[in-house]
User: Which sequence fits this backbone?
């Protein structure tokens, strides 16, 4: 869920308690950090970037054990250039309907306030923060012209790892991910960014003076992160996932078989956030359970339009739970038995009328019950006014100001219905989804 637009637009690089925001815009891999004025521009600036790129690319190639197939073009871009790139790629990669759906879904799961405007937020955040990126389309690395070049070699090592990945594994194949499985897309991004973050970490370990200059550059200005600070929690944490969890996963793969194993992962892709969070499941080839939900418009009526169908995954399930539980330990335990899921979202003709149908699969009956119990807690925290209608060991139903909510468990599967308006035949709806 969270990765559908975010992975195509944003990702957060977290390294050793220092935060360098990195992102992908329609497959472009970028780095963002505090911005500074007064740096060299023009011909001198570009010449310095070109020279530094060549040197860092050679060292990164040796470290990452990926040969340089061809040189990487590089240069500087102004803030206006980068803003135009952001808007252009957003417009090319996401239709207005898709951006609208992403915003509606965030609100439907309670992950963003009702006043949140997704697309304007992304543009403001990126314009504020982006400092450089690798573009697989142009096969070129760009660095913002308002930041100092000195101390940025670790960032360049990260981005030039993307260039090497692109030369060997073709990053453009990830640009148009098949619709309907954002969790698998998140796992692929965790591979891409985790690999580059690990390479960057080793580059810094090999070059301690460069690492020190990098740390100093990060500490020189920490005032330009207002948009990131204002982002809904689920967005902030999803930005971090490909780098924080991806790096931990890549480290385990590296320890198992060196860079050769990391490179092989571009052929044998991780299939879910579960495999990233639990590398042993990736090594064992434990694939997620595929779930389908039939078209329900015949039950909901012509006034409702299906705007999305996707997979939350273990990571998305954790975010949905912990948004209201505020207990990371419980939320992670309750999400850890995830085996598969799918949700569909319908939007009504009236403003704010949104229906959510989720079917989740779990590794065991106990895992399903643990999720069932935690989701009940989440529901009561999100809807304190909820009035119980039915309460049995395997079925909970409430009436809220947002409609009817149903939570039902059958063996290793749990069904969640939210926002169901009066007049809908719940028995027919449940029977259709359970088929």
Assistant:
């Amino acid at each position: 869920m969270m990765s559908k637009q975010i992975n195509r637009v944003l990702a957060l690089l977290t390294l050793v308690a220092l935060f360098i925001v990195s992102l992908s815009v329609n497959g472009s891999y970028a780095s963002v950090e505090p911005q500074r004025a007064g740096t060299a521009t023009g011909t001198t600036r570009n010449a310095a970037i070109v020279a530094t790129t060549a040197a860092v690319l050679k060292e990164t190639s040796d470290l990452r054990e990926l040969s340089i197939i061809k040189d990487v073009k590089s240069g500087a871009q102004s803030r206006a250039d980068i803003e135009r790139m952001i808007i252009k790629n957003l417009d090319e990669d996401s239709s207005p309907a898709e951006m609208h759906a992403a915003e509606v879904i965030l609100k439907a799961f309670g992950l963003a306030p009702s006043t949140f405007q997704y697309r304007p937020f992304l543009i403001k955040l990126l314009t504020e923060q982006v400092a450089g990126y690798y573009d697989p389309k142009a096969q070129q690395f760009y660095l913002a012209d308002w930041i100092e070049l000195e101390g940025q070699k670790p960032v360049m090592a990260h981005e030039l790892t993307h260039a090497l990945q692109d030369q060997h594994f073709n990053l453009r194949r990830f640009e148009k991910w098949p619709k309907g499985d954002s969790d698998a897309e998140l796992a692929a991004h965790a591979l891409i960014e985790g690999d580059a973050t690990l390479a960057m970490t080793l580059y810094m370990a090999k070059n301690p003076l460069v690492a020190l200059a990098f740390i100093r550059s990060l500490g020189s200005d920490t005032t330009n992160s207002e948009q990131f600070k204002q982002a809904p929690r689920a967005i902030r944490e999803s930005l971090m996932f490909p780098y924080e969890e991806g790096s931990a996963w890549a480290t385990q793969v590296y320890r198992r078989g060196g860079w050769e194993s990391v490179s092989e992962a571009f052929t044998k892709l991780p299939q879910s956030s579960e495999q990233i969070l639990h590398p042993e499941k990736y090594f064992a080839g434990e694939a997620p359970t595929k779930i389908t939900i039939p078209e329900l418009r015949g039950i909901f009526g012509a006034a409702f339009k299906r705007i999305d169908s996707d997979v939350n995954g273990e990571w998305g399930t954790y975010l949905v739970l912990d948004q209201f539980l505020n207990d990371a330990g419980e939320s992670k335990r309750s999400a850890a038995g995830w085996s598969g899921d799918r949700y569909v979202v319908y939007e009504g003709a009236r403003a704010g009328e949104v229906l959510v149908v989720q079917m989740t699969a779990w590794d065991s009956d106990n895992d399903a019950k643990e999720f069932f119990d935690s989701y009940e807690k989440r529901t009561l925290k999100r809807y304190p006014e909820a009035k119980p209608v039915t309460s049995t060991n395997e079925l909970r139903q409430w009436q809220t100001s947002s409609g009817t909510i149903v939570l039902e468990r059958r063996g290793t599967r749990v069904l969640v219905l939210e926002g169901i308006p009066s007049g809908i035949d719940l028995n027919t709806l449940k029977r259709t989804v359970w088929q």
